[in-house]
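Section 3.1: Structural characterization of target chains.
Under the original work plan, the team committed to producing a structural model for every single-chain target entering the pipeline before any wet-lab resources were allocated. The record below documents one such target. The sequence was received from the expression subgroup and is listed exactly as submitted; it comprises 211 residues.
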Amino acid sequence: MQIICLDRIDSTQTYLKEQLQNKKFHAPIAVSAELQTNGIGSRDNSWKSQKGNLFLSFALPLENLPDDLKIESASIYFAFLLKEALASFSSKVWIKWPNDFYLDDKKVGGMITNIVDKNLVCGVGLNIADAPDGFTKLDVEIDKKVLIKNYFKNIEKKVLWKQVFSKYKLEFYRNQNFFTHSNGVKVSLGDAELYDDGSLNINGERIYSLR
């Protein structure tokens, strides 16, 4: 995986998508930055940035994804692979459905996914060094370059979705006191039923991750 390292950028996700659309970059490729001034969070919210945190976006050709991975499950899949990379450093981070990184009851980061041409583009923000009010930072000290290297090693293994999901569903109970959004409405995860494709059944409605 080629990694382009920048000192400062508005958004690694926006930048990478634009370069792919303009045919200046070709997947697989990644972009990281020391500072991000206009990061993108879930539901098009801004992601507040602190220097020294992890700002990373990467693109993979759709044809290179695991055979059993559906696009709507990609956020869970790639978030969980990063969670496992963090766990190797003894972090207690867990994944709030479908794409947020949490420590106990506070958010420490998140992931978004998009399709650009025939590529999956994933953007990751993680509070490694510092966190804005209402958030928290990572519970272990870690070298970003080492973390990224280990993360991409996990990705390159092309572990099947069913193997990742079998571990993710064991931790899904952690979501029971939290909420998600469906069609702009806040809904409780307390009674959510998790399906094998990573979607949820909440009050009879099938909800997919579209981030």
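The two ends are 23 Å apart (CA to CA).
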